[in-house]
């Protein structure tokens, strides 16, 4: 590897780590904000989104661990851990959406929840794009794959936001759990691709 290539690689590595640290920091703060909003509104959707933030923290931690070392075996283990995160995400979404629909649970309105999920959606989509570009430039499947976890997090934030807004404006309490089923499909598909070796 030439000196210029080594410098470029080092720069990409720093960028990848920075993206993961921002993701970690955002989700740590998010757990606190979402917890407060969920308790105030008695919202299952907001509480569930807080659990999703925990999964994203785990996935980001895996990437930081993988980027700190080398070797295909390390990458394979990291990908399997991220695949497990997708499985957990799909399971949580399926259970949460089914319970909310079956119980007919109607949460209170949450201005804090609406504001936080709106900003979170924008931040997660931006981080996901950065991870996709950086992972492609580094030829790092772990960073690219975790970028998909971040993308799902952004889509989930948008879905929760839509549900909160429709509940606040029209009383459509069932909109959020229905959107959750779409994300179940996406998360299961990503997990299947990881475990089948397509990544």
TrEMBL record:
It comes from the Bacteria. Keywords: Cytoplasmic vesicle, Endosome, Membrane, Synapse, Transmembrane, Transmembrane helix, Zinc. The chain crosses the membrane at residues 21-40, 46-67, 79-105, 111-130, 151-175. It is a multi-pass membrane protein. InterPro entries: Cation_efflux_TMD_sf, Tmem163. It is found in: Cytoplasmic vesicle, Secretory vesicle, Synaptic vesicle membrane; Early endosome membrane. Belongs to the TMEM163 family. This is Cation transporter. It comes from Streptacidiphilus cavernicola.
């Amino acid at each position: 590897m030439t000196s210029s290539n080594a410098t470029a690689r080092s720069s990409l590595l720093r960028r990848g780590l920075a993206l993961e640290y921002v993701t970690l920091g955002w989700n740590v703060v998010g757990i606190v904000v979402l917890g407060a909003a969920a308790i105030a509104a008695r919202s299952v959707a907001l509480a569930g989104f807080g659990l999703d933030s925990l999964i994203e923290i785990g996935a980001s931690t895996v990437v930081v661990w993988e980027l700190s070392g080398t070797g295909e075996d390390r990458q394979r283990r990291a990908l399997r851990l991220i695949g497990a995160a997708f499985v957990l995400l799909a399971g949580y979404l399926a259970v949460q959406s089914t319970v909310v629909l079956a119980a007919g649970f109607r949460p209170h309105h949450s201005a804090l929840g609406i504001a936080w999920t709106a900003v979170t959606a924008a931040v997660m989509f931006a981080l996901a794009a950065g991870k996709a570009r950086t992972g492609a430039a580094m030829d790092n499947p772990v960073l690219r794959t975790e970028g998909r976890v971040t993308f799902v997090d952004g889509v989930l934030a948008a879905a929760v936001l839509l549900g909160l807004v429709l509940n606040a404006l029209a009383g459509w309490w069932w909109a959020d759990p229905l959107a959750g089923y779409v994300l179940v499909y996406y998360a299961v598909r990503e997990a299947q691709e990881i475990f089948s070796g397509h990544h």
